[in-house]
Design a protein that fits this description.
Largest sheet of chain B: 8 strands, mixed
Distance between the termini of chain B: 28 Å
Strand content of chain B: 15-25%
Number of strands of chain A: 21
Number of domains of chain A: 2
Largest interface: A-B, 52 and 57 residues
Structural class of chain A: alpha/beta
Number of strands of chain B: 39
Shape of chain A: globular
Number of helices of chain B: 37
Oligomer: heterodimer
Low-confidence stretches of chain A: none
Helix content of chain A: 10-25%
Radius of gyration of chain A: 20 Å
């Protein structure tokens, strides 16, 4: 049991024990209140640059599953190609794990990606601090001293996006999929619905004549400040003017909102959990959703022809927007789940219905 | 909706206990908030829900279609709630619907519609309904011959389980892994049954539950999921349960969650329900086992585990609210339409009382036998588990450090008993690997690794040999993994207080954390708290003043259940009214006292010396109330007092003088109060000599116990030694006393409240059964109907003398024997007794409120006499023998009932019959079997038997009784005893349910015929035939039915009497 510590920018220090990689790191400290799904969370690219605190105290119980890939080359059990967080902070680590699908321990898996973990921390006290003072910079100290570092100053999306386009051939409906740091399950959710995806880098020219024709655009989730994605916002603005159907998820909601003329701001401590209630405006329905975002959209600044689609039932923040007439819509939460509840999965179908109904066959070079 | 009827669940019994007081009480609160008039039917007089401040009108009547119909006719409610009173209320509702009562009186069923209830209750309909949406239930096929059996097994796939249809107690069942085994088993089964069921065998599959809430707008959430530590095959009520699930991946968790929601939507449930799954241990394959379309034991647990008030929300949804319209009652700012995030782990452990019963099997399995449960909260599984094991109050000090021994450890693992968890510890110690144990028990290895870790830590501590050597780091780790001071002391051969001192020197003290439903994501002012060593800072401050701590009653067990919760809650209510800051400590998830809106602070914690001290030192209150939660907190009085804690009310030194049999007997001698001759046990010879001099039978009893644990009547020298050693084992620290057992004496109790030794109010109640039947099993009449005024006066005077001698301030209870004109004291408790709610409600004088005021030093002028009423209350015991296969349903000095009911009537007979019916007793129509064991008893019952004959009953009798009846010209049919092979045989009559009532009176002494009598009693219970085994009770019963028919019984609300 090697000792390690977590230091926050306000000077507070939490002592615990090291697991995973023996390495000091700095990052932004955020907390997530989900009770299951650490393999999924830790590989979510939206956590890029962040030190993640899990409020559920018992972590590592069921180990980590295999690196099996599906026919499309995606990891079956992970949300991206690697562990994305900078560091992990928990209360109680289960050294001995057990599950029929487990291949390795959480500690070994973290070490494999050179990510440090620290356990034995009063994560509840830490969470309360982050809630009261807002997210903070912090560092896990193991082998050496490191400086605080604000990941939001970096273009994190560029770090986690892909290099060049990938085609996932399926049915006749084709969507361009802007990868700002997507979770694999968004891709799977479309492929399972027999949609052909053309996955492109975050700053790819969506009107590149080399692209095959497509029926709509999807903007994925991703890390950091949405305003960093200037190029993506520009592209989407153009797509709006061309009336190409657009759907955004998480960061995609913020990018669509910015492209439509809205504004974004940083939340005090974000929404990172699997139990966020989102009311669908104009109905009595409330969805329990999975979330991971530190920024939010201010929908009050949207033009008249746009409207909020979903509202967070707890704090009233924006959880989705849509155009009153045209096929542009986005959600702040994660309908693809993994981790978290799958209730909002139906929204994929609703977007695809829209495309079907809109009947527009968009030419990429039009 | 202006007027709504709520059906309660009646008496506590195995499988249906205190959780329904919690759910009913919440429903009442939810309805009253809306200005709705609430009518409640519940004969369980000891519940909180049947208190004045709760429902608008309360009927202490049986919850059955007959009485509920009568109340509906009278009250004409607009709506009815069926899902808050357990299976009793649900079944009653289905009957009322079937009989057209609800339609006739235009009573709307609120919440889940009747049809949906029916679809969940009927197994075939349920399977059909789920197949409509392609969900899996365990496959099951019926077979009438060998060929069909083989085909069915083929269809289902091996392994399969065979069950004989129409067989009781799982006779003729077995598991087959291949066709050869199947044929052999089936052949054997077909010899005793024409039809067998071939079912998919899910042994070792994980058992997972979800609590699901749905509103009429189709919003649907799962509030909590729970994982059973014990796999499929052990009833969830018999299993250790953990919340949230620990071994499920995201994929598994959300797959089951999605199926749960899809199922509940398809069934059309509105409100709350529970869904149980079997989940494979080697894949994510699943089966839906069942859906309970009502509040349940699991939902009560989930409410307490998460802080989400399921019953309250369910009641609101039944009224038509949508989930998003309702607020999270913990944060008060966020919505109720969310799923709680826990940042702790909860462990529930069942409490059994199997050693209270003669002849019952200790094996646990698919049928529920436990009588209560505990819930422990921690930030490590090990800590919660160890806490929970201590909370059971069965002598375990945690996972390790106990003295349980096992003869055949492998058998214990494969065929578990109520000691399974300790058997696992022992197996690990003997060198079994986690994999082997997991294979033998089906328990997920993750849980076993954690247990193994606790053993390893014990070894580590042991290596340091002394407390002084033990490094801070290891001591801290031990505390973090849930070791108690006592446990550490035992390992290091020192004293609990030494460990306490040492850890405080090292600054190892627990921190207080809140349960806030959102894992600290949102600010909340929650007062729902627990202690942990896995943390650095307290969530709360302790600066309030004027604080009083009330100790709760802990787990429900035989002898201590909802009645003490009523006492605790009323104490808190009174303290609130007196403007004190109230702090409750309790850990029973079935209770109202653990609802966080009852008190100012709720510590869901152990009622141990260590924990109470820790909380006391943090809170620094005015004092501690130990006299309301029954025997358990009472036992802490002296120890806490010696550490300087302020015990409110009667001095702990006086409590000790009353509890310690030796000291108390001496006190009575000093006061000149008569008592049965007694002697403190010093040696066997001494005991033998004493017994011989006063004459057998003698009563052996240990001190400081509740419900007569290890108390025995000894009839001869042969058995004296056995019982003496049993008694001294139960109470090692306290003396055992032997006294003369007086036969044929009447038992009378006084419940009273005193202040500085002066009695403020009192109530005297008489038992129907003679002494020898434990007071908790006795039928009680209040006010007494058949005792002399002189007796009353003498009892009152003795009580006053004792109160003065012990300077009692607060509640107390004294039990007396009355024979001829003699009054002897047999027991005195300086705490609230089981009958406090009963006498308080019958007299409408709240004894607990008075006692609390007295203890807080408020000067009370009123003096109340409680004898002269225009009505009678009768309290009757509820037994759960039918759940305890093999147990002998006979009454003795050790308590066996699991609950009680009480009804009011203008006369004794009316009240008595209603109480009896409220315990599930059906009035006989025609055939009665009599088996009366001694000539003396036959003569005593002769008049009653004549009355039965006059009433037109057809009497059957076993040999000696039959002969006796013939001698007295009472016509009867002779039935052979069960073990005799002659015809007509009693067994056939019982099996074919040709008998409406069995009266089996035995003398209680060991004798030759005991086995025959046992069989009659047991089979009567097995086949659901009403049984009377007590002579005085039988007499009263016959007197009652000769005067009253069912139609004559009054249907009157509480306030129409008082």
């Amino acid at each position: 049991m090697e000792r390690a510590k977590l230091v926050l920018e306000d000077g507070s220090t939490y002592e615990g024990y090291s697991f995973g990689a023996w390495k000091s790191v700095a990052g932004e400290v955020v907390f997530n209140t989900g009770m299951v799904g650490y393999p999924e969370s830790l590989t979510d690219p939206s956590y890029r640059g962040q030190i993640l605190v899990l409020t559920y105290p018992l972590i590592g119980n069921y180990g980590v599953p295999s690196k099996e890939r599906d026919a499309d080359g995606l990891f079956k059990h992970f949300e991206s190609e690697r562990v994305q967080i900078s560091g992990l902070v928990i209360s109680d680590y289960s050294e001995r794990y057990h599950h029929w699908s487990a291949m390795t321990s959480l500690s070994d898996w973290l070490a494999e990606y050179n990510v440090p973990g620290i356990y034995g921390i009063d994560t509840r006290a830490l969470t309360k601090k982050l809630r009261e003072k807002g997210v903070m910079l912090g560092k896990i100290l193991c082998d050496r001293e490191v400086d605080f570092e604000d990941p939001n100053q970096r273009n994190l999306v560029a770090e986690v996006s892909i290099e060049k386009p990938i085609l996932y051939p399926r049915g006749e409906t084709r969507l361009v999929f802007v990868d700002c740091g997507t979770k694999n399950n968004i891709i799977r959710s479309f492929l399972n619905r027999n949609i052909t995806l053309i996955r492109v880098p975050w700053n790819y020219n969506l009107f590149d004549p080399a692209l095959p024709s497509y029926h709509g655009i999807v903007i994925s989730n991703g890390p950091g400040d949405p305003k960093m994605c200037r190029e993506t916002i520009e592209q989407i603005r153009k797509a709006i003017s061309l009336e190409i159907p657009i759907w955004g998820i998480c960061l995609g909601n913020q990018i669509l909102g910015l492209a439509a003329g809205g504004d974004t701001y940083k939340l005090k401590y974000g929404h990172r959990s699997q139990n966020q209630p989102c009311l669908e405006r104009g109905t009595s329905r409330c969805y329990i959703t999975s979330q991971n975002h530190g920024y939010a959209l201010n929908h009050d600044l949207l033009p008249e022809d746009w409207e909020p689609w979903f509202i967070n039932a707890n704090d009233g923040t924006n959880e989705g927007i849509r155009h009153r007439a045209k096929p542009f819509m986005s959600v702040q939460f994660h309908p693809e789940a993994t981790p978290g509840p799958v209730d909002a999965g139906v929204l994929f179908d609703r977007f695809l219905d829209k495309i079907q109904k809109s009947g527009v066959r968009t030419q990429s070079n039009s | 909706m202006k007027k709504v009827l709520i059906l309660g669940s009646g008496a506590l019994r195995i499988g249906q206990a205190g959780e329904f007081d919690y759910s009913g009480s919440q429903a009442i609160k939810a309805l009253k908030e809306e200005g709705i008039t609430v009518i409640l039917i519940n004969p369980n007089i000891a519940t909180i829900q049947t208190s004045e401040q709760m429902a608008d009108k309360i009927y202490f009547l049986p919850v059955n279609p007959y009485f509920v119909t009568k109340v509906i006719e009278k009250e004409r409610p607009d709506g009815i709630l069926l899902s808050f009173g357990g299976q009793t209320a649900l079944n009653c509702g289905l009957d009322l619907d079937r009989e057209g009562v609800l339609e006739k009186y235009k009573v709307q069923v609120l919440g889940t519609p009747i049809e949906a209830i029916r679809n969940t209750e009927d197994r075939d309909l349920f399977a059909k309904k789920l197949s409509e949406i392609h969900l899996k239930v365990p496959r099951s096929l019926a077979a009438w011959d060998l060929e069909e059996a083989v085909q069915a097994a083929q269809k289902i796939g091996y392994p399969i389980i065979i069950r004989a249809a129409y067989a009781l107690g799982g006779e003729g069942s077995g598991v087959a892994w291949n066709p050869e085994e199947l044929i052999e088993l089936a052949r054997r089964a077909f010899t005793s049954t024409p039809q067998i069921l071939i079912e998919e065998y899910l042994k070792g599959w994980r058992e997972i539950e979800y609590e699901v809430v749905r509103d009429r707008f189709d919003n649907c959430i799962t509030v909590c999921n729970m994982e059973n530590f014990d796999p499929m095959g052990i009833h969830t009520g018999e299993s250790i349960v953990v919340a949230p699930s620990q071994t499920l991946t995201n994929q598994e968790y959300h797959k089951l969650r999605e199926i749960a929601i899809r199922t509940i939507r398809h069934l059309g449930i509105i409100g709350e329900c529970n869904i149980q799954f079997a989940l494979d241990y080697k894949s994510d394959d699943y089966r839906i086992i069942e859906v309970n379309a009502r509040l349940s034991r699991s939902s009560a647990l989930a409410s307490k585990a998460t802080g989400y008030p399921l019953a309250f929300i369910a009641a609101k949804l039944a009224l038509g609210y949508g989930l998003p319209e309702l607020k999270n009652s913990v944060t008060k700012s966020t919505t109720a339409c969310f799923e709680p995030a826990l940042d702790y782990v909860v462990v529930k452990i069942p409490r059994w009382d199997l050693n209270k019963f003669k002849g019952v099997s200790e094996k646990i399995g698919t049928e529920m036998k436990s009588v209560g449960e505990v819930m422990a909260i921690g930030r490590k599984f090990e800590a919660a588990l160890q806490k929970g094991l201590r909370m059971l109050d069965i002598g375990a000090i945690g996972l390790v450090g106990n003295d349980f021994t096992f003869k055949d450890i492998r058998d214990e693992l494969e065929r578990p008993t109520d000691k399974r968890i300790f058997a696992i510890v022992e197996a690990l110690r003997q060198g079994y690997t986690v994999e082997e144990i997991s294979y033998l028990t089906g328990i997920n290895a993750w849980f076993l690794y954690k247990i193994q870790g606790v053993l390893a830590l014990e070894d580590k501590i042991k290596k340091y040999t002394t407390l002084a050597n033990l490094p801070r780091e290891v001591l801290l780790e031990a505390k973090q993994k849930g070791f108690s001071d006592l446990q550490i002391a035992k390992i290091l051969k020192t004293q609990e207080l030494e460990v306490r001192k040492r850890r405080k020197e090292l600054n190892i003290i627990p921190v207080v954390k809140q349960i806030d439903t959102l894992a600290a994501e949102y600010p909340s002012k929650t007062n729902y708290l627990y202690l942990t060593y896995n943390g650095e800072t307290d969530d709360i401050s302790f600066e309030e003043r004027n604080k009083v701590i009330v100790l709760g009653s802990g787990t429900y067990r035989i002898g201590s259940s909802v009645e003490f919760d009523w006492c605790c809650v009323n104490t808190v209510f009174t303290l609130n009214k007196l403007k004190y800051n109230t702090i409750m400590i309790n850990y029973n998830p079935e209770t109202v006292s653990t609802d966080y809106d009852i008190c100012d602070k709720l510590y869901f914690e152990e009622l141990s010396f260590e924990t109470v001290m820790d909380i006391y030192e943090k809170e620094n209150p005015l004092g501690l109330i130990v006299s309301m939660g029954g025997q358990m907190p009472n036992n802490l009085a002296l120890k806490c007092y010696r550490q300087g804690l302020n015990i409110l009310g009667t001095s702990p030194l006086s409590i000790d003088r009353a509890e310690d049999r030796y000291k108390f007997s001496k006190l009575l001698d000093e006061l000149g109060v008569d008592q049965p001759e007694w002697r403190e046990l010093t040696s066997l010879e001494d005991a033998e000599q004493f017994a011989k001099s006063v004459g057998y039978p003698v009563l052996v009893r240990p001190s400081y116990v509740l419900s007569g644990a290890a108390m025995s009547v000894v009839y001869d020298e042969r058995n004296l030694e056995t019982y003496l050693s049993k008694a001294s084992k139960v109470s090692r620290e306290h003396p055992v006393v032997i006294s003369k057992f007086i036969v044929n004496a009447k038992e009378i109790e006084i419940d009273a409240v005193a202040q500085n030794g002066e009695i403020l109010t009192w109530a005297i109640a008489e038992h129907v059964e003679n002494a020898g039947v434990h007071s908790g099993d006795a039928t009680m009449i209040f006010p007494p109907q058949k005792i002399y005024l002189e007796t009353v006066r003498r009892i009152k005077n003795i009580a006053q003398k004792i109160a003065m001698a012990l300077k009692i301030t607060g509640p107390f209870n004294i039990q007396f024997l009355a024979k001829d004109n003699d009054i002897k004291v047999i027991e005195c408790n300086l705490r609230a007794s089981r009958s406090f709610p009963f006498v308080s409600k019958v007299s409408k004088v709240n004894f607990i409120s008075l006692a609390t005021q007295a203890m807080m030093g408020k000067r009370i002028k009123e003096r109340r006499l409680n004898l002269d009423f225009d009505y009678v209350g009768v309290k009757a015991p509820q037994f759960s023998f039918s759940r305890l296969k093999g147990a002998d349903p006979i009454l003795g000095v050790e308590m066996a009932s699991t609950g009680e009911v009480a009804c009011l009537g203008t006369d004794l007979y009316d009240a008595f019959l209603k109480s009896l019916i409220a315990t599930g007793f059906k009035l006989p129509q025609k055939n009665i079997l009599l088996s009366i064991n001694s000539e003396e008893n036959r003569y005593k019952l002769l008049e009653s038997i004549k009355k039965l004959d006059n009433l037109g009953f057809h009497l059957f009798a076993t040999e000696a009784t039959s002969k006796f009846l013939h001698e007295h010209k009472i016509p009867n049919t002779l039935l052979c005893k069960i073990q005799e092979s002659c015809q007509p045989n009693g067994l056939d009559y019982l099996v074919q349910r040709k008998l409406d009532l069995v009266i089996d009176i035995s003398t209680g002494q060991p004798q030759e015929d005991e086995q025959a009598e046992y069989l009659i009693r047991r089979k009567a219970v097995d086949f659901g035939i009403p049984l009377l085994t007590n002579l005085q009770l039988t007499k009263l019963f016959v007197d009652s039915i000769s005067r009253k028919k069912l139609e004559d019984l009054e249907v009157k609300a509480w306030d129409e009497y008082v």
